[in-house]
Amino acid sequence: MTVEGTAQRKNARSSSKRTTAKKAAPAKKASPAKARTTGPTEQAEQDQLVQLLTPEGERVEHPDYAIDLSPEELRGLYRDMVLTRKFDAEATTLQRQGELGLWASLLGQEAAQIGSGRALRDDDYVFPTYREHGVAWCRGVDPTNLLGMFRGVNHGGWDPNSNNFHLYTIVIGSQTLHATGYAMGVQKDGADSAVIAYFGDGASSQGDVAESFTFSAVYNAPVVFFCQNNQWAISEPTEKQTRVPLYQRARGFGFPGVRVDGNDVLACLAVTKAALERARTGQGPMLIEAFTYRMGAHTTSDDPTRYRADEERAAWEAKDPIRRLKAYLEAEGMVDDAYLASIEEESEALGKRVRDAVRAMPDPDHMAIFENVYADGHALVDEERAQFAAYQASFADADAVAEGN
After folding, report:
1. What digits encode the pLDDT tens for the residues 108-157?
2. Are 115 and 265 in contact, with CB atoms under 8 Å apart?
3. CA distances from 121 to 15, 148, 288 (A)
4. Reported confidence tier of residue 9, pLDDT bands at 50, 70, 90
5. What SS3 state is found at 199?
């Protein structure tokens, strides 16, 4: 099941220092982010959010997930989020201008992606969906390389082994199986690394995800499942997907789960670091539910105004991940106007580079789609190639006839 197929049916690397793994336990209540709820039980579960930075930008501590970052590292997280948001906005605009066929925005999810992405070591391996633009940024994938597939000129645009960042996966949930299998291989090789799989709240209802949970638990695979619960599976709200908080699903498979404030970049960094170290040290898989919000449309083919209220978005805008980190940095005197201006200048330069790169992308060879399908060739592919070549030639023949007249 693909993301756009579902929409139609509805009609609507930077390495980090190692840290000691810490036990996933109920979090200390500290100004939890609030969201759409169905009753007192759900509100009680939201109070279990791991949070280190409140929506107002105040630093709080957590007994199980401590983190101590330098001013330079904190400024780096802010820069990452700002530049990622700029790139995402440019891609959305380019799609509206007809330069891309489709785009899946990450607006509002920058903290979940940058925090978890910066928790990774170089030798860890990432299996993304189609929205992990911030994680790709952390892994050193050039932003312009993300756009080729959405423009229709390539199948991905980067070598996954260069950055340990797999190609984007459009099929919902299948990458969790790929991640689990890869993690089982890492385990058999005796490598000191971990694997992380990203997916959304809607994908958690897919059978592939349940199967990956089963295999990873039984084989104690070194994999972290990172679910970005952005509240909406296209037009379907979370309460239509599950009767319990998503992180609790891990319990039924025999491994721990934790819910983190997905708009808190510090909490996402701390929790993901601990989960990855836990996996590396042979303690098996873990599920992280990043409780966040999709500020924009599911993709540029979606109209969220048809199924969600403006008041809901406004409530989440108050928890904006970039704004809260900026407030903390300013309160602590870690940034000044000159620094913020430099980031804005860098942001504008990135936007221009993305625009220029997309418009300069050459059209692909029409026959390239038939290459590298099978290592040794295949009769059916050869037949299809010949049929397509004849089809293309028919246009040239028609043009020749027209010019002759």
Report:
1. 999 999 999 999 999 999 999 999 999 999 999 999 999 999 999 988 88
2. yes
3. 4, 27, 18
4. very low
5. strand
- Angstrom distance (rounded) from CA 50 to CA 362: 46
Look-up: residue for tokens 């059209």? 363
Q: Give me the residues paired with residue 22 across strands.
A: none
Flag whether pLDDT at 32 surpasses 70. no
Q: From CA 238, how far away is CA 235, in angstroms rounded?
A: 10
The token duo for 191 is 């490598």
Alpha helices in 146-305 (DSSP H): 147-151, 160-163, 174-189, 207-218, 265-280
Tell whether the torsion through CA atoms of 171, 109, 137 and 125 is positive or negative: negative
Hey, what are 50's tokens? 């791991």
Distance, in Å, from the CA atom of 57 to the CA atom of 252, rounded to the nearest integer, reads 35
Distance CA 285, CA 215 (A): 10
Query: Residue 246 corresponds to which tokens in the numbers above?
Result: 């998503």
The share of the chain scoring above pLDDT 70, in percent, equals: 87
Query: Among all chains, which residue has been given the structure tokens 């109070």?
Result: 47
Residues in the chain: 405
Burial 233-254 (b: 16+ CB within 10 A, else e): bbbbebeebeeebbbbbbeebe
Q: Give, for 108, the enclosing helix (H) or strand (E).
A: none
Catalytic residues: 294, 298, 307
Q: What is the mean pLDDT of residues 46-67?
A: 92
* pLDDT tier, 90 (very low <50, low <70, confident <90, very high otherwise): very high
> Residue ranges of the alpha helices (H) in 360-378?
none
Backbone angles phi, psi at 335, to 5 degrees: -135, 155
